[in-house]
Structures are given as structure tokens and as C-alpha cells.
Specification:
Elements: E1 3-9, E2 18-20, E3 22-26, E4 29-30, E5 36-39, E6 58-61, E7 65-70, E8 73-79, E9 86-92, E10 95-102, H1 103-113, E11 118-121, E12 149-153, H2 154-161, E13 177-180, E14 192-195, E15 198-201, E16 205-207, H3 226-232, E17 234-235, E18 238-247, E19 251-254, E20 259-261
Parallel strand pairs: 12-13
Antiparallel strand pairs: 1-2, 1-13, 3-4, 3-19, 5-11, 6-7, 7-8, 9-10, 10-11, 12-18, 14-15, 14-20, 15-18, 16-18, 17-18
Length: 263
């Protein structure tokens, strides 16, 4: 039987995630997941695609704070949530939404990355809708690329690693939910699935980008795993690995929760 084997929360978009054993699912996805984001002077989001050294920014969750670390920077403590701050319009892909600027965090990231940047928080009042062509009108998401969750199986990664000269870790693909005990690429069929007590919809598989080619320890780029994945996971001129998910109700996920495909 397939079951959840790992859970990840990413407090700041494109920075390192935090592995947890159980975590609450709220309206936008995992609580605290990608409610923070870095933007340029125009308010447009920036990620490891533009600034690979973001992969070296570590995050640690405490009860009401997030601890940030980065090479050459003094650690910084951020509030888990932000209620006040300069409000500005920010953009994620084609979506314009609201962000509250955190001045100290903005200065911290600007120093580390050597560019004028702002760190913004998505307040509860911001309502960023999931792609209406693949979601319900009530579905909302944080600063994640498009969907509240990404699920990937250990078997899929093992199949990929068997094809690579140098195996890579699951963290390279930045999933929220990892599953063990399934067949490789079983998640491709998760159009409807139950994880523990929560039901999910799988609107589309996840198309993979250049971030997967970055060494998370150094930020250096290569050609793998996209080159190998393109040999057997290419469709519509895109490489697919993992499934996006939208939850039907709030609740809580735990390592060990069973995974049941809904017919």
C-alpha cells in the first residue's frame, strides 16, 4: 500500500524547505507554505531561475518565527505571519496580487544577492485564484507557482536515478508530499486521490524547469536531470515529473497516512 513518507514546507518561495512529520492543511495549502516571496524593483517575483544562490538560503520553522541562514550573512529571524507593512502589488507569472514589504528581510536578501530586492508577505486579505480552467472558483493559492501542492513518489525518483550517472536527492524537485510503496509514476494517475482524511484533485502533471538542474549545495547548474527526463518524460515540448494537487478541504497530513486513488 502506498503511504506518505515525507512532507515539506517552503516558507519562502525558492528558498530551502523544511521537512516535517505532520502539518496542517489550510485554505491555500500547507500552513506557512510560500507565504513569503522575493520580488524585484518592479514587484515581479524572482526565483532560483534568475538567482541560483537562493538555493543556499536555509529556513527553519519555530512556533511563530522563521530563521533564515545564508553563506556570509548573519542569520535573520522573520515573523511567521506579517500583519502590517507597506502594501504593494506583486506579480507571480501572470497573476497580480498583494504583498506586504518586510524592510529588514528586504535588506537581508539584497545584501546576500547583491541586488535591490524586496521580501514580501501574502496577507490573508490577498486572494490569488488557482487557474480557473483547472480549478474551482473557491480555490486559492499562496505564492507557489500555480497549485497548492506537488506530490512525487520515491519509486519515480528511483527509476530516474537508475538512469543517471550521479543519483540526485528528492529535495531537488521541491515536492510538498512524497509517497512510498507505489509503482513508478503512479502519481500521473492521481486525478482524484485521498491522502489520510483529505481528498485531492490532480489538475495536471508538473512541468519541470531549470531549477532542477541546480546543485542545491552550490547553486551551480548542469544539464541533469532534465536531459535524461527529456528522453522518456517529454510531451508537448515539456518535461513532466510529479503531479500538482488541489485539496478539497482543510485538515492535517502526517507521515504514514495512506494514499488511496479515488475512481
Amino acid at each position: 500500500m502506498a503511504a506518505i513518507s515525507a512532507l515539506y514546507v517552503y516558507p519562502i518561495k525558492s528558498c530551502r524547505g523544511v521537512r516535517v512529520d505532520d502539518w496542517p492543511v489550510v485554505e491555500r495549502g500547507f500552513a506557512a507554505d510560500r507565504r513569503w516571496m522575493i520580488v524585484n524593483s518592479a514587484g515581479v517575483f524572482v526565483t532560483q531561475r534568475e538567482l541560483p544562490q537562493l538555493c543556499r538560503v536555509g529556513t527553519r520553522l519555530h512556533s511563530d518565527t522563521i530563521e533564515l541562514t545564508a553563506p556570509g550573512n548573519v542569520p535573520l529571524s522573520l515573523p511567521l505571519t506579517l500583519e502590517q507593512g507597506l502594501s504593494r502589488t506583486v506579480r507571480v507569472w501572470q497573476d497580480d496580487t498583494l504583498g506586504l514589504v518586510h524592510a529588514e528581510g528586504s535588506a537581508w536578501f539584497s545584501r546576500y544577492l547583491g541586488a535591490p530586492l524586496e521580501l514580501v508577505y501574502m496577507p490573508d486579505s490577498a486572494r490569488r485564484a488557482v487557474n480557473p480552467e483547472r480549478a474551482r472558483p473557491s480555490d486559492v493559492v499562496s505564492f507557489a507557482d500555480g497549485y497548492p501542492f506537488l506530490i512525487l513518489s520515491e519509486a519515480s525518483l528511483a527509476d530516474l536515478n537508475a538512469r543517471l550517472q550521479h543519483p540526485i536527492a528528492m529535495e531537488r524537485f521541491r515536492p510538498n508530499i512524497v509517497v512510498s510503496g507505489s509503482e513508478p509514476y503512479a502519481e500521473d494517475g492521481y486525478q482524484r486521490v485521498r491522502l489520510g482524511e483529505i481528498s485531492f484533485r490532480g489538475p495536471k502533471r508538473c512541468e519541470r524547469c531549470v531549477i532542477t538542474t541546480l546543485d542545491p549545495e552550490t547553486g551551480e547548474s548542469g544539464t541533469e536531470p532534465l536531459r535524461t527526463l527529456a528522453r522518456y518524460r517529454l510531451a508537448e515540448q515539456k518535461v513532466w515529473f510529479g503531479m500538482n494537487l488541489i485539496h478539497d478541504q482543510p485538515g492535517r497530513l502526517r507521515v504514514g497516512d495512506m494514499v488511496t486513488k479515488i475512481s
